[in-house]
Design brief:
3 strands; three-stranded antiparallel sheet; about 60% helix; alpha+beta; 6 helices
């Protein structure tokens, strides 16, 4: 009996209701204080906690203003795009300075930048591979080297 009185007293203090209301809610909840609080909330006698009763142990993340997010994303994307563009320019320059040479009996037949060879291979792969294999049967030799004339 003493325990019941103590729990009703705790419920009354916590919910800020009368003894009679606390006793009715406690008995309707079969002695469960949490359930009694929920009953009192549903009756409108107790104000529910802020946030609809949802609690988390995680710290809330502080949101950046939308304008700052867009600005930082834009700068991030533009810097990545700039770095990608610089990479492509360096790659094409290196390809233009690298030569693909076809020779037969120490006589150069074709001498083209490797960039052109890559483009041909991308758009006409069967033709390029067929010509390279066929050239081997006719004793053509292939050589790839960096162009010494450019000095880079």
């Amino acid at each position: 009996m003493n325990n019941k009185l103590e729990q009703i007293e705790r419920l009354r203090e916590r919910a800020n209701v009368t003894y009679d209301e606390a006793k009715q809610a406690y008995e309707a909840a079969d002695g469960d204080l949490l359930e009694a609080l929920i009953i009192l909330e549903k009756q409108g006698k107790v104000r529910p906690p802020e946030g609809d009763g949802f609690y988390s142990s995680e710290r809330p993340q502080v949101e950046q203003p939308q304008e700052e997010k867009k600005k930082s994303k834009g700068e991030d994307f533009s810097s990545k795009l700039d770095r990608f563009w610089q990479f492509l320019v360096k790659l094409v320059n290196k390809g233009n300075n690298t030569i693909f040479e076809v020779s037969q009996n120490d006589v150069t037949v074709v001498k083209i930048p490797i960039t052109i060879m890559v483009i041909f291979t991308l758009f006409l792969p069967w033709l390029v591979v067929s010509l390279l294999v066929l050239g081997l049967f006719f004793k053509f030799r292939y050589r790839v080297y960096e162009n010494p004339e450019n000095g880079n």
